[in-house]
Each structure stands twice: as C-alpha cells, then as structure tokens.
Amino acid sequence: MSKAETKELLNIKNLTIHYITEDGTVKAVNGIDIQLNRGETLGLVGETGAGKTTTALGILRLVPNPPGKILGGEIFFEGEDLLKKSEVEMRHIRGNKISMIFQDPMTSLNPVLTVGEQIAEVIQIHEGLGKQDAIEKAKKMLEMVGIPGNRHSEYPHQFSGGMKQRVVIAIALACNPQLLIADEPTTALDVTIQAQVLDLMNNLKKEFQTAMILITHDLGVVAEVCDKVAIMYAGEIVETASLEDLFENPKHPYTWGLFGSIPNLEEEVERLNPIKGLMPDPTNLPSGCPFHPRCPKAADVCKKQMPKTTDLGNGHKVRCLIYEGIVKA
Amino acid sequence: MHKYVFRRLLMLIPVLLGVTFIVFSIMYMTPGDPAQMILGEKAPAEAVERLREEMGLNDPFLMQYGRFVKNAMMGKFGRSYTTNREVFAEIFSRFPATLQLASLGVLIAVAIGIPVGIISATKQYSLFDSISMIAALIGVSMPNFWQGLMLILLFSVYLGWLPSGGYGGFANFILPALTLGTSSAAIITRMTRSSMLEVIRQDYIRTARAKGVNEKTVVNKHALKNALIPVITVVGLQFGYLLGGAVLTETVFSWPGVGRLLVDAIKQKDTPMVQATVVFIAVTFSFVNLGVDILYAFVDPRIKSQYK
C-alpha cells in the first residue's frame, strides 16, 4: 500500500504530442511538465488551440491516431508510466482510475442508449457487477447528481443540457476515480447552470477526495475551484503557481495579458486591454519563445532563445527570459 | 404510432393517382392500337373499329382515365388484352417468384455489405479497405444485364455448372440472386462505410472509449446502432426496387416474375396489365418504405418520439 500513501498522484514529464498531417505537423503539446497530488485540483488555462484538450487526451492515451502521436515524455500515474502500459491495461484505467468529462454534453452521450445503460456500462466494466446491480448503482449515481433515479430508462434527448452534463459527471464519477479530467465542463452551459455544475463537481470532489485537472479558459472558474494553476500557451506551460501566487503575483507576460482581458468592476477603465495578435499557427510556431510576437516585453533575444523553466520557489515556475536575467522586465 | 401509420397510408392515395395518371398518359400517347393488336394484323378495319368503340378507346383521354380510376376504386383493373385473365390474378401468380428472388438478393447484399462496410470503416485506408472499395466501385458500375450475361457465359456456357435461366430448383436461383445481390451489396458497403466513418468520429464514441469500453464493443454497440439508419434506408430502397421486379435481370434469366410480366405487357400494349403492374409496384414500394420508417423507431429513440 505504499503507493497509495504517497502524496503524488500524477507526474507528467516532458510530454510531447504532435498531429502529423499532409499539410504539416501540428505541434499541439511541446514538452510539458505537470505535477499533481492526491485530492488536488489543477486549473489548466489557455486560449483555444493551446493544446489543453490534447494534453488531457494524452493522459488517457486517447489522442486520435492517426494523425495524433505521442512523441515523447513520461506520464507517471500512481508511480507507473502510462505510456508504457498496454492497451488492455489502459482500458482498466480509463473510466476507473482516471475519467474524463468532455466539453459538450449535447454530443457526449450516445443518443440511442438510455442514460442508465450508459452509466451502468462503466460500472459493469470496472466493478464486475451484473447488469441489474449496475443499473441499481446507476440510479444511485443519478440521484447523487440530482436527477431522479427513475429517469434512468430515458434517452439523452429527453434531458436538458445541464442535466446531460450531470449524467456525464455521473458516468465519470461512477467508479470513484483517483483523477478526474474535466475539459471545459461548463463552457457549453448557461451561466446559471454553470454555477450549479461547478458546485456539484466541487462537492463530489471533496466527498470522494478526487484529484482533478480542470481545463478552462475562464479564470473566474479557476478562482472558484482550483488549488493551483498551469497557464498553457502554444503547447507549452509558461507558468505554474498556487492559486494565490498566480492571482496576486503573476510573472509571465502572457499571464498578465490574460488578467488584462478580464473586466474589473472596481477600477474605472476606458476599455479592456486584450493581448494583441493571435495565437500562433501550431504548424508553424515562431522561433525562440513562442509568445514573443505578442509580448510587450519582447527583446531581440526572445526571437532566438527558447526560455528555460525558472523556479521562483514555493512551486511557482515560469518560462520567460526575464527571470533568467536575460531580458529586462 | 397507429396514427402515424394511418396518415402514411392516406398519403398513398395521391401517390397512386399520380403514378396511374402518368402511366395512362404514356400508354395513350405511344403508337399502336390495342384493338388491332387483339384482332391481329389482318383483321378488317370495321371489326377493329367496332372493338375500339366497344372498349371505349374512342372516348376522350380524360374520360378514359376517369373510367379507369372509377373501376380501380372498385377493385376492377380489368382483364389482360392478351390472355384475357384478371390482371391481378396474373400479377399475384407471378409475385412469389419475384419475392423469392428479391429476398435472396437482399439477403446476399446485406450479408456482404454490412460486415465489409464496418471492417472498411474501422480499418480506413488499409489494404482491406482499398480492395473492398474498388470491388464496390466495380459492383455499382457493372450494369445488371451485362453482369448477368457474363455470369451465364462463365457458369452456364463454359463451366456448365448452373442453369442459364428459368425457374425451379435452388440452382436456378443462384445466378440471378448473385446478379442482384452484388450490385446492392456494393451500394450497402459504401453506405455502411461512410456512415460508420461519420459516427466513429462523434464525441460519444470518445466518451465510450474514455469509459474503458473495448474497441469491439465500441464498434458493435455504440457505433453500429447509430450508423444503421442510413443503411436501413438503402436496404429498404433496394428491397422495394427488387420487389417491383428487377426488370433487366428477370429478362436476362427468363425469370417468371413481375418485372418480366411488365416488359411483356408493354411490348404487347396490354394497357390494363401495365396499369395494374405499375399500381402494384407503387403500392409494394410504399409499403416497404413504410416498413423502413417504422423500423427506424426501433433503432433510434429520437425518431420514435416524433411518431406521435
């Protein structure tokens, strides 16, 4: 049981995932490190196309192949490298120890199977229960996410968007996973429903001591739910810090930019200060630091030199030449 | 559901009116005189004229059509000009042959098309996929009558294994059923493949994989049922089409079915027989389609909830 007692649950080292297409190689994830302890929640924040979803699919080894390919790195989960596991071993982990909630509840459920069947399936696979017992447990899971158990025999189209996302959450939590990956779980929902779903996830996470990676582009959601934050840009993690550190003392110019894009009620500002320019094309990333074309602090050296990770202490890490003492802040 | 079926049956009325009107017009406008045909080339002109008057062929077009509709509503489609038998009795005596051939053809098509389509989709761009897609392309491109002739040439003339035509034992079925089956199989293969390819990319398939479902179950349980709807449509259309008598194939293999009955009736300008056959084909086709629509409800609960 020594493995279960260690604090560390997930340790991703130098993970690289590319999509190799005829039109060029999409460099989706470029050497990222993520470290997560049991029961902790990490917010993975970044713009659309930063490689967040690819990272998540990479952890479950569900990157569509072809064209996607995990080119290198290690993903240690409970001390074992997931990239070295066989497909059969991975199937025992998916939905059981690691489960995932996808972005769009409208399309994540199979339209021709009842919600009860869809929840029961994951229970049958991993807990070896018979069909009847699994359905009974599925009903309990439905009750837990706030849906009457007797609706288990209904089909997804008979539920609203928020309800469907609850069903998806019930599927993800049915086998009491160690790690839950939630890929923008509230983006497709109405604002009022968003708050409900977040509350629900927060409560269930505490109840079951589940660690979570919450993928989002919404810093408000991060502030509400996360213990620590990783900021992702063009397939790299440019800054990691505890929630307090990141909000009070952001270091990376990109993180500054993200905060500048949020309206602030307390300050009187004429207009928002969004980050100039667009995310670079991942088939053709700029040389040096990938953020340099949009960076207000960029110097000539940023075009050539790739920044290394600088540890600022207390788990606060940043990838910027400013903190290597090469560029003036 | 009952209401839905009833409404669909009501819709048959305008369909049949349209179909009969068009066929009646074509038969009216094509050259040739049924009275002359009945009495023979050498019959005296007065006799022909008398028969024309008797048969109502001298009446205006709309009057003739109206009389046809009126009789048809009372179930009277008349007698064949050539055999003088009740037309529907003739059709019903021919139908079993067509039904057997069509069923066997569709069975072959489904047995080949669906599995090959599924494997092609799950192994996209593999050697198997390329070969089956080329085969399917050949299958849809080959005209039935030509394929039938080639099969006769090979298996009946050169090898002498199978009879070249006629109706009777199981051996007689093989070549015509194969002819019908291969072209339908090609269409069903292509449809299954493209439908599966679309479904396999859906988010709920990713959800199933993320649950730890094995690939076989992902394909057979999660993907197939969703991919089946367009496939059922095509199978239904093919079956409906074959039930109406595969005109060319039945002719090539001298198969005593509805299709050949129609061809012979057209050749002899046997208007009542042509009319009745076409009505019969339209009704069969509509019923098969209705059956397909009802089948949808069992596959997709979203469609079921619309059949109110």
UniProtKB/TrEMBL annotation, chain A:
Which CDD domains does the record associate with it? ABC_NikE_OppD_transporters
Q: Give the UniProt keywords, A-Z.
A: ATP-binding, Cell membrane, Membrane, Nucleotide-binding, Transport
The subcellular location is: Cell membrane
- Residue ranges occupied by any ABC transporter domain in the UniProt entry: 10-259
Query: What's the gene?
Result: oppD_1
UniProt cross-references to InterPro entries, sorted A to Z: AAA+_ATPase, ABC_Ni/Peptide_Import, ABC_transporter-like_ATP-bd, ABC_transporter-like_CS, Oligopep_ABC_C, P-loop_NTPase
Indicate the secretion signal residues.
Answer: none
An example of a Pfam family matching this protein is ABC_tran
Any Gene Ontology CC annotation: plasma membrane
Q: Which GO terms describe its molecular function?
A: ATP binding; ATP hydrolysis activity
Q: Which GO terms describe its biological process?
A: peptide transport
Key word Nucleotide-binding present: yes
The answer, when asked if Transport is one of the entry's keywords, is: yes
Taxonomic superkingdom: Bacteria
Per the record, membrane topology reads: Peripheral membrane protein
Q: Which family does it belong to?
A: Belongs to the ABC transporter superfamily.
Please state what the protein is called.
Oligopeptide transport ATP-binding protein OppD
Automatic annotation (TrEMBL), chain B:
GO cellular component terms, A-Z: plasma membrane
Q: Where are the transmembrane segments?
A: 9-29, 101-122, 134-161, 167-188, 227-253, 273-299
What CDD domains has UniProt attached to this entry? TM_PBP2
Q: How does it sit in the membrane?
A: Multi-pass membrane protein
Q: Where does it primarily localize? A: membrane
Q: Name one GO molecular function term.
A: nickel cation transmembrane transporter activity
Does the keyword Transmembrane belong to this entry? yes
Residue ranges occupied by any ABC transmembrane type-1 domain in the UniProt entry: 95-296
Give the subcellular location: Cell membrane
One of the Pfam families matching this protein, by short name:
BPD_transp_1
On whether Coiled coil is a keyword of this UniProt record, the answer is no
What keyword terms does UniProt attach to this protein? Cell membrane, Ion transport, Membrane, Nickel, Nickel transport, Transmembrane, Transmembrane helix, Transport
Q: Which SUPFAM superfamilies match?
A: MetI-like (SSF161098)
The family note in this entry says: Belongs to the binding-protein-dependent transport system permease family. OppBC subfamily.
What is known about its subunit structure? The complex is composed of two ATP-binding proteins (NikD and NikE), two transmembrane proteins (NikB and NikC) and a solute-binding protein (NikA).
Q: Which PANTHER family match?
A: DIPEPTIDE TRANSPORT SYSTEM PERMEASE PROTEIN DPPB-RELATED
Q: What is this protein called?
A: Nickel import system permease protein NikB
What organism is listed for this UniProt entry?
Thermotalea metallivorans
Q: What is the lineage of its organism?
A: Bacteria, Bacillati, Bacillota, Clostridia, Peptostreptococcales
